[in-house]
Amino acid sequence: MTTLVAPSQTVGEMMFSKLGWAPTMKQAPILACGKRQIVVSGGEQSGKSMVASKYMLQRLPDAEEKALYWLVAADYERTKAEFDYLVEDLGKLGLLIKATKRVDPGVIEFGGDGSKIETKSASDPRTLAMRAPNGIVICEASQVDLTTYMKCRARIAPKRGWLFMSGTMEGSLGWFPSLVSEWRSGMGDKQSFMLPTPSNIHLYPGGETDPEILRLKAESSDEFFMERIMGVPMPPRGLVFPEFRADYHVADVELDAEKPVLVWIDPGYDGAYAVEVVQVVDGQVRVIDEVYERGLVTEDIITVCEGRPWWKKRVGGAVDIAGYQHQAMPAVAEIWLAKAGLNLLAEKVRINEGTERMKSVLKWDPLQKQPKFVVSPKCRGLLSEFGVVPNPFDGQSRAYKWRTDRDGNTVGDTPEDKNNHALKACIYGIVSELGYITLINREYARVKRF
User: Fold this and answer.
1) For residue 237, which phi and psi values (nearest 5 degrees)?
2) Which range (12-26, 232-246, 286-300) has the least confidence?
3) Residue 246 contacts by C-beta under 8 Å, 6 or more apart in sequence?
4) Given pLDDT bands bounded at 50, 70 and 90, which one contains residue 221?
């Protein structure tokens, strides 16, 4: 690839000097970071698109000849700011060969060796399944879903590429705010930064004491100001499982044809009927699929399950103890046995003991050097209850939480009994498969029927 800088100078110093541009104090450490995954939480008008484009610009000479880079967003239009900055900068540096006028899709060719920057839309997953890029910028990352992040993370693997994500938070639940919080102190090859609006001294020369910033602070709620202006995640208090991390517990786990399948169930109708499909591989609990539906009865759920690839590998499972109760109709467990040939274990699981058992499997396994519990990104019902994706029924944030007062303080000793259908199914299954953490006096013995 064409050499862009002299050996004695850094890429950024040479390029930015030629462009007559200098980073702000908050932008400089972001541009200097050489880690493979970087996430930037920017306030509105903080210059996050500028720093994202400059980050890609300075990394262009890193790769071999005919390199490929992506600008990814929820739709093509959201790549436009970074695309336009790159076209302008490459033109000034004399490296631009040609560029499309549109971004849907857009292509920038630079360097004279066939190297390209391409725009990609997360709304068309096929665009993310092509040749592996050397680096990716996810524009307005808070607007893309967890699956897109997972795909981008996988696409950079073949070339040991880098992934840069920037966005403005709109609420502090979800995969993007969780990465901002978890990577603040650095985590291996991952790092997060906050780029507050007042740091853009070109728009707000007074910084945090600029009159416009002070006006915004006075007229906004504390949560809005911290999230949308300062870029600081303000996760709601009361999450039952704050230990669950999007980058840690979400993995592209698929059906292992050599392992049996367990089916863990929490029946329901108006809330959700949750079926979590699990394999235990090398001591790791893997939730590989789920059926998470509303308004369907057990026979309907079984019909849905029968069409899944794992169906013929099922060997057993677990269900809420209420699944053996007769309420003027056949018990749920009896229907699963009669229609699906599936024996389901059931026992009384106390709320707090079940919660502690789930927390125990969310820990890192130091012997296997992996998390003990992972979830496929396709299991959106379960992930929504953990608080990392929106609820699949209405697109709202509906995580499993403790009861809290108006100040966010926990009230009582049990969580709210809602937004927990998939979680309860997993807790029943974990207790059934692995037992409790310690011996307790059980009110109900494990029951196996028929």
Assistant:
1) -75, 155
2) 232-246
3) 146, 149, 174, 175, 178, 179, 388
4) confident
C-alpha angle 155/157/158, rounded to 5°? 95
Alpha-carbon distances, residue 183 vs 38, 111, 366 (angstroms)? 9, 34, 20
CA separation (Å) from 424 to 1, 264, 267? 54, 9, 10
- CA dist 15 and 3 (Å) reads 12
CA distance 131 to 232: 35
Structure tokens given for 62: 């890193």
- 3-class SS letters over 199-214: HCCCCCCCHHHCHHHH
Architecture of 247-448 per CATH? 2-Layer Sandwich (3.30)
Domains of the chain by residue range: 11-235, 247-448
Q: What is the greatest pairwise CA distance in the chain?
A: 82
- The amino acid that residue 141 corresponds to is A
| Sign of the torsion formed by the C-alpha atoms of 331, 335, 338 and 343 | negative
Q: For the segment 233-271, what is each residue's pLDDT rounded down to a tens digit? A: 876 678 899 899 888 899 999 999 999 999 999 999 889
Tokens of 176: 């993007």
107-110 and 96-99 strand pairing? antiparallel
Q: Do domains 11-235 and 247-448 have the same CATH topology?
A: no
Sheet holding 96-99, edge to edge: 96-99, 107-110, 115-121, 68-73, 135-138, 162-167, 37-42, 190-195
Q: How far is CA 80 from CA 34, 39, 76, 111, 249, in A?
A: 25, 19, 7, 21, 33
What's the DSSP call for residue 239?
A: B
Please name the amino acid found at residue 83: F
Q: How far is CA 146 from the centre of its chain?
A: 4
Question: What is the residue type of 101?
Answer: K
**Bridge partner list, 193:** 40
User: Which residue reads 């700011």 in tokens?
Assistant: 81
Note whether 29 and 193 are within 8 A (CB): yes
Give the separation between CA 215 and CA 220, rounded to whole angstroms: 9
What residue type is assigned to position 277 of the chain?
V
Question: Cα(308)–Cα(311) distance, rounded to whole angstroms?
Answer: 6
Angle at Cα 43 formed by Cα 37 and Cα 49, nearest 5°? 55
CATH topology of domain 11-235: Rossmann fold (3.40.50)
Per-residue pLDDT at 431 exceeds 90: yes
Does pTM top 0.90 for this prediction?
Answer: no
* Closest C-alpha to 170, from 41, 55, 278: 41
